[in-house]
Amino acid sequence: MSRAAVLTGVGSCLPPRAVSNDELAAGLGSSDEWIRSRTGIEQRYFAEQGTATSDLAVGAGEKALKSAGVSAVDMVLVATTTPDRPCPATAPTVAARLGMRGTAAYDVSAVCTGFVYGLATAAGLISARVADRVLVIGAETFSTLLNPEDRSTAVIFGDGAGAVVLRSGDPREPGALGPFDLGSDGAGEDLISVSAGGSRQRLSGADPAADDRYFTMSGKEVFRHAVRRMTGSARTVLARADWDAQDIDHLVSHQANLRITHHVADSLRIPRDRCVSNIAEVGNTAAASIPLALDQAHAEGTLRPGGRLLLTAFGGGLTWGSAVLTWPELDRF
């Protein structure tokens, strides 16, 4: 009998410090109006000194486990671009702090698509009977990668974590994930990158320039690729599910930019009022954006049992991916 990964719990965690557009704009020759009009962002959250990605991941994981009514799982996956250290992976630390020493745990690195890749990985593990329950976390402290003088990136990204618990179940029951669509194109690796810190830079024989330590993004090219790739991936997964776009109750896309979300919705002919968006409140939180949006929409009562959801994301690599599910009945805390 086939097994599906069924969403059974959701949670999130944001650092306490909210950073307004006005706070950032003053040092960038920008304004609140400029930032809002181009990104849809009003504020974001930055982790304080002493807070690491694992701290936010643990906070989100605890809430997701509570939502699912369980204290342990068989596998912990952490999707992140900002691990606590280059080595070891952050996931084993998170698992241990959640009381699961001995549990299999590893990181997933696909930048902003990381959470969708993590969902697909977890679904495969459950389908193959490697695991019965998996905790998938997207967690980022992207503020650690930002050049505070680069207004093309400094105003966009924020820190946070979101998580879901998946269990084995019937493919026909509410919460069952799938089908999926995943893709990548490494020819675009320089469009979204941090040049310093990896083997290519370390083995070049040259010291990195100061700016090479920061995150960079070719905004116009990324915008174009994001819309095209998320739209194409979404169409593929809808066809595999035998769903029509008009049947979608909520589009939950990676919260990259509100204009990107609207372009994708328009291309798919999904009304904009069906887009789940929290980018105004939290900014672009990379791998954490979709689970953060899911948890917030669930807490607010936007997501109702039986609603059809389309998830889609695009990130560095270049990577992209999509999935569908019917929203299950979950407790709210």
Question: Describe it for me?
Answer:
The active site is at 112, 254, 284. One of its GO terms (molecular function) is 3-oxoacyl-[acyl-carrier-protein] synthase activity. The protein folds into 2 domains: 4-169, Thiolase/Chalcone synthase (Peroxisomal Thiolase, Chain A, domain 1, 3-Layer(aba) Sandwich); 177-326, Peroxisomal Thiolase, Chain A, domain 1 (3-Layer(aba) Sandwich), CATH 3.40.47.10. The chain is 32% helix and 25% strand. It is built from 11 helices and 13 strands. Strands 1-7-6-4-5 form a 5-stranded mixed β-sheet, with helices on both faces.
Strand order, sheet with most strands: 1-7-6-4-5
CATH architecture of the largest domain: 3-Layer(aba) Sandwich
Q: What proportion of the residues is helical, as a percent range?
A: 25-40%
Query: Mind describing the biggest β-sheet?
Result: 5 strands, mixed
> What is the gyration radius calculated from CA atoms?
19 Å
Mean pLDDT: 96
CATH superfamily of the largest domain: Thiolase/Chalcone synthase
Number of beta strands:
13
Report the top-level CATH class of the largest domain: Alpha Beta
SS summary, helix count: 11
